C-alpha cells in the first residue's frame, strides 16, 4: 500500500513512542549478559515479527540466560524443556490424566503453555517430539484429546543446538528447520567482554536482579505496529531478487554458484526477510525499511534455507560465503 510522506512521519512518531520499552529491556539485560548484542537483537526481532529463533553455538555462551532474562523483563511466563532421546510429545504439550476419585479425565498442560519456550538441544529428541513442538510453533495451538487450546501471546520459541557434539542426535529435517524465522550462529565473546564476564561471576556476592520493565500488552501492540512499517516496491523486489538468486543463480550473473546450491530459499524466506527487516526498522525507530535493514538480517534468514551440494563441501564453501556473494552481486535499490 502506497503511503505519503505524512503517513510515514506519523508512523515514525508512533514507533518512537511505542519502542521505548526496547531501551529499557536492553538496559536490564546488560546487567547479566555481556556482549552478545546480535543475539539479543535477533531475539527481539523474532518476538516482534511473530517468528521463532534457532540458536547454534557451543555451550556457555548465555543462550539459556538470555531467554530467561528476556522473559523476566517482560512479565512473561518462561519454560525450559531439556530435549533428550527419551522425551515424549506428552512431556512437551501435555496429556489427559484419569482422576480415579471423580471417574473422569482431566487435561494436564505441558510446559509449551508459556510465553517463552527454551527448547534446549532440540536435535537430541526424536522426530515425533520435534514435530509436536513445531506444530505448536506453526499453528499457535495444541490439541490434547478432542480439544484444541490456543497458546497465549506473545509466544516465542528459542531452540538451541550444539554444533560440536553430533553423536546421538536427530538433525532437524529441512522442512522443519524452515519453520524457524531466524537461525543465529553465536560466536565466542571478545577478550574484553570475557574479562567482564570473569569479573561479574567471581566478584559479585549476589546475582543482579532483573526487573520487569515491559508488559506483554506492549509487545502485542508493538507487533501490530511492526506490520505497518512501510516497505517500498523497490525493497520488495530487492528481497525477491535475493531469494530468487538462491534458486536460479544463473539468472543473476551467479552461474558459478549453481553447482554449489542443491536447493534455495522457500517462500517463507521471502516473507520472513520482509518481516524481520520491518522489525529491524522498528528497533531503529523507523517507520520504513531501507536496503541496509534487509542486508543486516539476510544471513540469519537464509543460512538454514539454502542447501549445499557435495561439491560445495569439497571446496570448503559454506552458506555464509554464498549469501555474501549474492548480496555482493544483486543490485541494491
Write the layout of secondary structure elements.
Elements: H1 5-18, H2 20-29, H3 37-48, E1 53-56, H4 63-73, E2 78-82, H5 89-93, E3 94-99, E4 104-109, E5 116-120, H6 127-139, E6 141-144, E7 147-150, E8 156-161, H7 174-177, E9 182-185, H8 191-203, H9 216-228, H10 233-247, E10 261-263, H11 267-283, H12 291-302, E11 307-308, H13 310-314, H14 319-329
Parallel strand pairs: 1-8, 1-9, 2-5, 5-8
Antiparallel strand pairs: 3-4, 6-7, 10-11
Q: Could you characterize the architecture of this molecule?
A:
This protein has about 325 residues and is an alpha/beta fold. It has two domains: about 20-215, Rossmann fold (3-Layer(aba) Sandwich); about 230-330, Helicase, Ruva Protein, domain 3. It has 14 helices and eleven strands. The strands form four sheets. It has a five-stranded parallel sheet. A two-stranded antiparallel ribbon has the order 3-4. A hairpin with a 4-residue loop joins strand 3 and strand 4. The longest helix is centred in the C-terminal third of the chain and has 17 residues, at about 265-285. The chain is globular and about 70 Å long. The mean pLDDT is about 85.
Amino acid at each position: 500500500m502506497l503511503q505519503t510522506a505524512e503517513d510515514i512521519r506519523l508512523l515514525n512518531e508512533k514507533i518512537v513512542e511505542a519502542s521505548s520499552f526496547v531501551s529499557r529491556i536492553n538496559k536490564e539485560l546488560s546487567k547479566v549478559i555481556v556482549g552478545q548484542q546480535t543475539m539479543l537483537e535477533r531475539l527481539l526481532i523474532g518476538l516482534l515479527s511473530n517468528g521463532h529463533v534457532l540458536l547454534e553455538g557451543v555451550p556457555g555462551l548465555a543462550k539459556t540466560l538470555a531467554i530467561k532474562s528476556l522473559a523476566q523483563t517482560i512479565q512473561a511466563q518462561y519454560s525450559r524443556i531439556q530435549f533428550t532421546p527419551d522425551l515424549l510429545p506428552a512431556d512437551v504439550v501435555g496429556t489427559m490424566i484419569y482422576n480415579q476419585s471423580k471417574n473422569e479425565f482431566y487435561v494436564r498442560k505441558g510446559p509449551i503453555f508459556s510465553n517463552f519456550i527454551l527448547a534446549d538441544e532440540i536435535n537430541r529428541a526424536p522426530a515425533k517430539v520435534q514435530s509436536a513442538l513445531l506444530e505448536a510453533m506453526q499453528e499457535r495451538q495444541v490439541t490434547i484429546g478432542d480439544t484444541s487450546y490456543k497458546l497465549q501471546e506473545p509466544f516465542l520459541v528459542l531452540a538451541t543446538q550444539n554444533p560440536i557434539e553430533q553423536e546421538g542426535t536427530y538433525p532437524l529435517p529441512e522442512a522443519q528447520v524452515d519453520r524457524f524465522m531466524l537461525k543465529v550462529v553465536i560466536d565466542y565473546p571478545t577478550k574484553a567482554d570475557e574479562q567482564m564476564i570473569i569479573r561479574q561471576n567471581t566478584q559479585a556476592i549476589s546475582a543482579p536482579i532483573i526487573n520487569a520493565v515491559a508488559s506483554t500488552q506492549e509487545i502485542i501492540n508493538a507487533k501490530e505496529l511492526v506490520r505497518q512499517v512501510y516497505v517500498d516496491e523497490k525493497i520488495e523486489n530487492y528481497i525477491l531478487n535475493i531469494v530468487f538468486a538462491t534458486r536460479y543463480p544463473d539468472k543473476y550473473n551467479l552461474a558459478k554458484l549453481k553447482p554449489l546450491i542443491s536447493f534455495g530459499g522457500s517462500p517463507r524466506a521471502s516473507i520472513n526477510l520482509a518481516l524481520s527487516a520491518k522489525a529491524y526498522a522498528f528497533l531503529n525507530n523507523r517507520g520504513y525499511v531501507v536496503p541496509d535493514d534487509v542486508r543486516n538480517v539476510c544471513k540469519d534468514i537464509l543460512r538454514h534455507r539454502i542447501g549445499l551440494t557435495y561439491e560445495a563441501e569439497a571446496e570448503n564453501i559454506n552458506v555464509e560465503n554464498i549469501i555474501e556473494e549474492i548480496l555482493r552481486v544483486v543490485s541494491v535499490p
